TrEMBL record:
Gene3D superfamilies: YVTN repeat-like/Quinoprotein amine dehydrogenase. Keywords: Plasmid. This is YncE family protein. Signal peptide: none annotated. InterPro entries: Host-pathogen_enzymatic-act, N2O_reductase_N, WD40/YVTN_repeat-like_dom_sf.
């Protein structure tokens, strides 16, 4: 008999950002029981778990609001201990502002953080030493608003998607320079294949003004990283924001759906959709209905479970990626913590496996 996808997850934790909370909440990965939370400064967006230092990095992006309408850009990252559930440090990146995308290179001890541009500089990526938690420098992306960032498995190349700029920025992480621009009609989330040969980019970006007929076709653009060129598009019915690649090679995309009469109004939505592809064959494997406005996706380290944070409904859908069935929904809004956004899966500390063995 096949084991439950929850089997053996006792002690593992799912961390969830509530951007309007502002809170990071912690849930037992086996039972979905809320274990506690930590208050953070406004407005938290993304999370990144560092297994080497055993901390969570949380980007504090705006004083209020979101990318297209905010009350000013923040300059900080919160460093959180997921075991004691407390902030251990707030790292100030000033004068850099609008930190959002987080990408970790554990081998080199580097954290890469996308930051928005200003009058005197373009947007870029700040490089942080994860041991000292201090910035080492920045890499320009030649675009005003790099928002999502990913690196290849070798830690040599980084990719920044840019909402308004019509290209994906490719940067050499060793030399700290912009090396290429791949033409894409505005872009959102992205992921890089396990062998580093392809990047999967959601495009066009989520601008819902104007006629839908005049917008570029929605989907996931496939970039050949060896030639820095587009080689394919995986079509989707609706605009995609988050993209995530699991350890088992499944490409997860969050489609945002709105009624035709409300397309110009952010905040009035129909249930979104988790669309699953095989990254190798680029074939669609299936779809699962999720909450309103899917914004962040992550998965368990074994690739069995997918987690979809939906910011408008403030829910997190938990999906069995083998059967493509929704197993549960965490209703973050009922906790008084609206705006589910960033996610991170935190395995139990070494040596703390449950003494009673596996459970179903």
């Amino acid at each position: 008999m096949q084991q439950s996808p929850r089997t053996g997850r006792e002690g593992d934790v799912l961390a969830v950002v509530s951007q309007s909370g502002p809170t990071v909440s912690f849930f037992d990965a086996a039972s979905d029981r809320r274990l506690g939370g930590v208050q953070v400064p406004a407005e938290p967006h993304e999370l990144c778990y560092d297994p080497t230092q055993r901390v969570l990095w949380c980007s504090l992006t705006y004083h209020s609001g979101y990318y297209h309408a905010n009350g000013g850009r923040r300059t900080e990252l919160a460093v959180i201990d997921p075991d004691s559930r407390r902030i251990v440090e707030v790292v100030d990146l000033a004068p850099e502002h609008g930190p959002h995308g987080l990408a970790l290179d554990t081998a080199r001890g580097r954290l890469y953080v996308s930051v928005e541009g200003a009058r005197d500089r373009p947007g870029g990526v700040v490089v942080i030493d994860t041991g000292t938690r201090r910035p080492l420098g920045r890499i320009d992306t030649d675009a005003p608003g790099p928002h999502w960032f990913a690196i290849d498995p070798a830690g040599r190349t980084g990719y920044a998607t840019n909402k308004e700029a019509p290209f994906v920025s490719v940067v050499d992480l060793e030399r700290g320079t912009l090396t290429a621009k791949v033409e894409v009609p505005g872009s959102e989330g992205l992921a890089v294949s396990a062998d580093g040969t392809h990047a999967f980019v959601a495009a066009p970006y989520g601008n819902f003004s104007g006629s839908a007929e005049k917008r570029p076709a929605t989907g996931i653009r496939v970039i050949d990283t060896r030639t820095a060129s587009l080689v394919d598009t995986l079509p989707t019915q609706d605009v995609v924001l988050p993209v995530h690649l699991t350890s088992t090679g499944r490409l997860l995309a969050g489609e945002l759906r709105m009624t035709a009469a409300e397309e110009a109004q952010l905040g009035r939505h129909e249930p979104g959709c988790l669309t699953v592809f095989c990254a190798d064959t680029r074939k669609q494997l299936g779809q699962v209905e999720v909450g309103l406005f899917p914004l962040t996706i992550t998965s368990s380290p074994d690739g069995r479970l997918g987690y979809v944070a939906c910011v408008v409904s403030s829910t997190v859908d938990i999906v069995d990626l083998e059967t493509l069935e929704r197993l549960a929904r965490l209703d973050i809004a009922k906790l008084g913590e609206p705006g589910a956004h960033g996610l991170a899966y935190v395995p139990r500390p070494d040596g703390q496996r449950p003494a009673h063995g596996l459970s179903g």
